[in-house]
Amino acid sequence: MAERERAVLVGVATGKVARPTVEAHLDELAQLVDTAGGEAVARMVQERKSPDPTFFIGKGKVGELASLAKVNGANLVLFDDDLTPSQVRHLEEELPDGVKVLDRSGVILDIFALRARTREAQTQVELAQLSYLLSRLTRRWSHLSRQAGGIGTRGVGETQLESDRRIIRRRIAALRGRLDDIERERIVQRKRRSHLPGVALVGYTNAGKSTLFENLTGTQTLVENRLFATLDPRTRRSEIGDGLVVTVADTVGFIRKLPHHLVASFRATLAEAALAQVVVHLVDASHPDWTDHLKVGEEVLASLGVEPKSCVIALNKIDRIEGGLPPAPPDRTVVAISALTGKGLDRLRSELRLAVLGQPGIEVLRFPAAGGAELQRALREETVVARRFSETGIELMVKRRKGRS
Ligand SMILES: Nc1nc2c(ncn2[C@@H]2O[C@H](COP(=O)(O)OP(=O)(O)OP(=O)(O)O)[C@@H](O)[C@H]2O)c(=O)[nH]1
Ligand SMILES: [Mg+2]
After folding, report:
1. Domains 6-112 and 195-357 belong to one CATH topology
2. Which ligand is nearest to the CA of 315?
3. Measuring CA to CA, which residue among 367, 310, 316 is closest to residue 333?
C-alpha cells in the first residue's frame, strides 16, 4: 500500500457474525491501514445471510460503495474478509477508475513486506507473497481455460500461465531452501545458549510484548502503539531472581484472520515459542476484545503444539483499568501486570521461577557452605542455571540434558 492511500472499509455481518463484532473488526482493519501508511476515510457494513458469490456484498450495495469511494476521494476499497480473485475483478469493474480492491490478508502481507528487516523475515514475506500469488494464478488459469474456447487461444494462455507458474514455483523452492539454511543457523545459535532455560513472550499484536521484553531484559527495542511493530524477534538474557538466568524471546504478534500463507512461513519464528520451557501469553486486558485476543492466541499456540499448562497468562496494561480486574480463565496461572509501570512484574518473575524450576530436567544440588571438591566438580561439570546461598549451605539449580543421568 503506497503512502497516504485513502481507503473505504467494508464489512459484512452475517447470521454468524453480529454487527458490533463487524464494527470492532473494522476498527482493527483501520489500524492495519494506518500501520501500512494509509488512511481509512469511510466505512460500510452490510447485513446479509451469506456473502454474494459475484461481489461479496449485494449488487445494490456495490453502487453505494462506488459513490462512497467517489465522495471521499478514496483510491482503495478494503474488505475485512478474504475475496476470491473473480470477486476482486468484478468489484473493480463496477468501481470508479483507479480504485483498487484489496482484502485484509493483502494488507497484512503489505505490512509484513514493509516492515521486514532481517534476511529471515524478508525471505518469509516473499515466500508468503508468492504462495498468495500462485493460488490466484492457479484459479485465474482455470477460469481462463474455461472461457477461452477459440482454437489456439487456450494453448497460448496455458503456455504463458504454465511458465509463470513454473518460474514462481522455482523461486518458492529456492526461498524454502534459503529458509532451511537460516533455520539451521538458528538451531546452532540456540544450541550455543541452550544451557539457559527459555521464556517466550507471545500474544496478540500490540499487547505489550516488546515493552515487557525491555522491562525484563533492560534492552531497548521497538515499542509502538501500532499493530505489528515487531517482525524480527529478539532474544536476550534476563535474571528473574534467586540467581536464575533465562533467555527471553520477543515474538511476532498474532491477529485474527492471519493469512495462512503467513502463518505457514512464520512458523519457524513462532517455533521459538514452541521450544521455550515457559510461554508467557500476554493479553492487553484494557482492550474491549481482550477475551477474543486470548482465544486467537490460544488457537495459534495449540496449532504449534504448545501445552496450555506451560503457559503463564499475563493480563497486561492494568494501569489503564479502573475498578476490578476482568475475570480470567480458571485452572490457569494468571498474573496481572503493567509492563509499562513495572507493576506485578515481581509476581510474574516468581511465577516464571516456579515454572522453570518445575520443568523436567532441572535439579537442585545441595552442598555445605564450605563447598569443597564436590561443589567444585559440580560447578565444572554441570550446567548451572542458578545458585542460591542459604543458611545451611549452597544450592545449585542444574539443567540435565536429555540422555544424561
Ligand atoms: N498503559 C500501558 N500501555 C502499555 C503497557 N504495555 C505496553 N503498552 C503500550 O502498548 C503499545 C504496544 O506495545 P508493544 O510493546 O509495542 O506491543 P507488542 O505486543 O510488542 O506489539 P507488536 O510488536 O506490534 O505485536 C505501546 O504504545 C506501549 O507503550 C502497559 O502496561 N500499560
Ligand atoms: Mg513488539
Report:
1. yes
2. 1
3. 310
Average pLDDT over residues 297-304: 85
Cell numbers that stand for 95 in this block: 468501481
105-120 pLDDT, tens digit per residue, is 888 888 888 877 778 7
C-alpha cell at 137: 494464478
> Atom 13 in ligand 1: which residue has the minimum CA distance?
208
> Given this model, what pLDDT does residue 381 score?
83
Q: What is the pLDDT of residues 311-362, one digit of tens each?
A: 899 999 999 998 777 777 778 889 999 999 999 999 999 999 988 887 767 7
For 6-112, CATH gives 3.40.50.11060
For the chain, percent of residues with pLDDT exceeding 70: 83
Name the closest-CA residue to atom 1, ligand 1: 317
Cα–Cα dist 200/203, whole Å? 10
Average pLDDT score over the chain: 82
User: How many whole angstroms separate alpha carbon 160 and alpha carbon 147?
Assistant: 16
Q: Which fold would CATH assign to domain 195-357?
A: Rossmann fold (3.40.50)
Q: Give the domain ranges of the chain.
A: 6-112, 117-190, 195-357, 362-399
Confidence (pTM): 0.78
Atom of ligand 1 nearest to the CA of 203: 19
- Report the b/e string of 158-193 with b at 16+ CB within 10 A: eeebeeeeeebeeebeebeeebeebeeeeeeeeeee
Residues with CB under 6 A from ligand 1: 203, 205-211, 223-225, 227-230, 253, 316-317, 319-320, 338-340
Task: Measure the CA dihedral 63/65/66/72, to 10°.
Answer: 150
Residue matched to cell numbers 539457559: 196
> Ligand 2 mean position to 208 CA, how many Å?
7
**What's the distance, CA 195 to chain centroid?**
27
pLDDT at 144 (0 to 100): 40
Amino acid 260: pLDDT:
64
Label residues 104-138 b or e (16+ Cβ within 10 Å = b).
bbbbbbbbbbebbeeebbbbbbbbbbbbbbbeebe
The yes-or-no verdict on residue 257 having pLDDT over 60 is yes
